[in-house]
What we know:
Elements: H1 3-22, H2 30-37, H3 41-47, H4 51-68, H5 78-91, H6 93-101, H7 105-124, H8 130-133, H9 137-157, H10 164-179, H11 183-187
Amino acid sequence: MDRRTEKTKDAIYNAFSSLLLKKRYSKITIQEIIDYANIGRSTFYSHFETKDELLKAMCTDIIENIHSSNLSLDNATPCSIIVPILYHIKGNQKIIRGVFSSNSSELLTTYFKRYLNSRIEQYFLFSYNETQTGIPKNFLINHISGSFIEMIKWWSDNNMEESPEELSGYFISVISPIINLSYKQIHNA
């Protein structure tokens, strides 16, 4: 993507995020987005056909950027997975807050949960024994990813005052009894 296109897309994202912090998603108009971004209507429509498409693109970009920041995960530990995700989220605090505060936050939640589910299964529950615990693996994955998303919402609501390392420590401490992580796995980041 060329610089001008990227700059325009960023302006649209920033405008939309600012508006999401001020009003409900359903009340935001494309004209308001255009005015905030200081672009023309045709420019907006050359990037997005609808406001829904813009929201979906923002959510997709957030998840893809998180995913691309975690590409080398050989010998990964829970902390080494969580901390970069939290740094990315903190770096995009305005967008995250805007999307989570909108009445369409379920779109981000759905995409994010799908991403988290694969990471949890691959890096947290690699040695999980369903028959030993009696808890279905897919239930546990859903529980952990839902808890993580709620933690992000809580963190965002509290101005992200905790560092990603602190928050990761809290989260790992809460979920480790559930997934039977050893002390070495938890603290070997």
